[in-house]
Amino acid sequence: MDKLERQGFVIVPGVVDEVLRLTLLQDIEELVSPGSAGIRGLTRRIESVARLAQSPTIRTIVEPVLGQEARLVRSILFNKTEEANWQVAWHQDLAIAVQKRVEREGFVSWSAKDGLPHVQPPASILEQMLNVRVHLDAADEANGALWVSPGSHRCGRLPANEAADAAKRLGKYLCTVDDGDVLLFRPLTLHASRKATSNRPRRVIHLEFAGVALPVPLQWADAA
What we know:
By secondary structure, the protein is an alpha+beta fold. Helices cover 24% and strands 28% of the residues.
């Protein structure tokens, strides 16, 4: 995973086979309402996604990066379609979900999403996390594939108003993927996506893993 540490992201091709991909899609389609942009707490709602997240298929990718004690801390479906089409500006993933709000030094910008407390931890926590995006559809510029800025994870936490300039300075890369591919990236890697211009769906299972415990009494939420 030298490329991941150097660039802040890497594409792993052909991780999910066609049988599993179709099973995941079928289970997701039974739950997703028309026009929905996504679902939080995905592993709590869909058993096949929960099995995937803890399967050797995913663990053999995650553990070389974070260690054997790595735990799943968030699971989200991103469902970009004609009905749910959006643009995301350049940003880093700075917030984590926790079980309960407890004030600790270095943990700032508290908020709530779907009833769960979220907070921005110190960069040292984010540096020991990994985002795993399982692509259920092929993605390119036309249907809103993710853009990343190589090496930006080495910049630490960036003010939001500096993100676009930093991406311009460091360079941009479009993560074109096939269905079944997995995109790994560090939360501090600058990333963005544009609105889709085609009618092809872009369904992504987004899993976040952490290789570090939070300082007590803070605790990770269970795959929020």
